[in-house]
Amino acid sequence: MKDIFSGIGWFGDASQMSPLEQTYKIARTQAIIVVSGSLPGYFLTVLFVDRIGRIKIQLMGFTMMTIFMIGLAASYKFWSSPSMHAGFAIMYAFTLFFANFGPNSTTFILPTEIFPTRLRSTCNGISAAGGKCGAIIGVLWFQYSQTSIRSSLLLLAGCNLVGIMFTLALPETKGMSLEDITGEMDEVSEPSEESATVAEAEFIHSVEIS
């Protein structure tokens, strides 16, 4: 967020500010964007995750993030003018809104539900670690790559499209218990033929004939 807003000149000329003043402006901007975009998106996810469904929310989030990021990147020079800084901030706040009313929330819910019980903790840990690796790569990309902010936004939009394709392969878990999701109830309710035979044999009594 700092690099993107610095790129459009949101914080002014850094050479004419003290480090404390620059840090204050960055922290203030980030707090405003989070309060106006991220938190409302998170609260809406809590309210509607069992009404709309995890997959629909995740697809909607990825799709809207893609649209807003392409909108920011396609007209990046337009947003760079001082008169349009507020519009850029609103667009970016909507991006974070649909990040939290979307994959930023549902990707913490789905891994705890869709994996079988025997593998749930392990696979959930692997899934979380994969997400953290992606976050590290994203931060390092912005920090050290020579790519422009506009190109980086387009790259992020491409990552969202990949997220949409993977989301389409996931099962919907709305309104289902963990046993129903993994199919464990079906296994319990349908005993094998061998176990059924043994169960029937227990009720066979032999009578001696003298």
How would you characterize the overall build of this protein?
- The structure is a single chain.
- With 210 residues, this protein is mainly alpha-helical.
- It has one domain: Growth Hormone, Chain: A.
- It is 73% helix and 0% strand.
- It has twelve helices and no strands.
- It has helices at residues 2-7, 19-48, 54-74, 76-80, 85-100, 103-109, 111-114, 120-144, 149-167, 178-182, 184-189, 193-201.
- α3 packs antiparallel against α5 (85-100) and α3 packs antiparallel against α9 (149-167).
- It is elongated and about 110 Å long.
- Keywords: Membrane, Phosphate transport, Symport, Transmembrane, Transmembrane helix, Transport.
- This is H(+)/Pi cotransporter.
- Residues 1-175 form the Major facilitator superfamily (MFS) profile domain.
- It is found in: Membrane.
- Its main location: membrane.
Provide a concise account of the structure shown.
The chain contains twelve helices and no strands. The protein has 210 residues and is mainly α.
Mean pLDDT: 81
How many helices? Answer: 12
What fraction of residues sit in β-strands? under 5%
Radius of gyration based on Cα positions? 26 Å
CATH class: Mainly Alpha
Q: Give the H and E element order.
A: HHHHHHHHHHHH
Helicity range of the residues?
A: over 70%
Give the CA-based shape.
elongated
Tally of structural domains: 1
- The CATH level-2 architecture is identified as Up-down Bundle
What is CATH's topology name?
Answer: Growth Hormone, Chain: A
Q: Which stretches of 5+ consecutive residues score pLDDT under 50?
A: none
> Care to count the β-strands?
0
Quickly give the structural class.
mainly alpha
Major beta sheet, specifics?
Answer: none
Give the N-terminus to C-terminus distance in angstroms.
93 Å
CATH superfamily: MFS general substrate transporter like domains
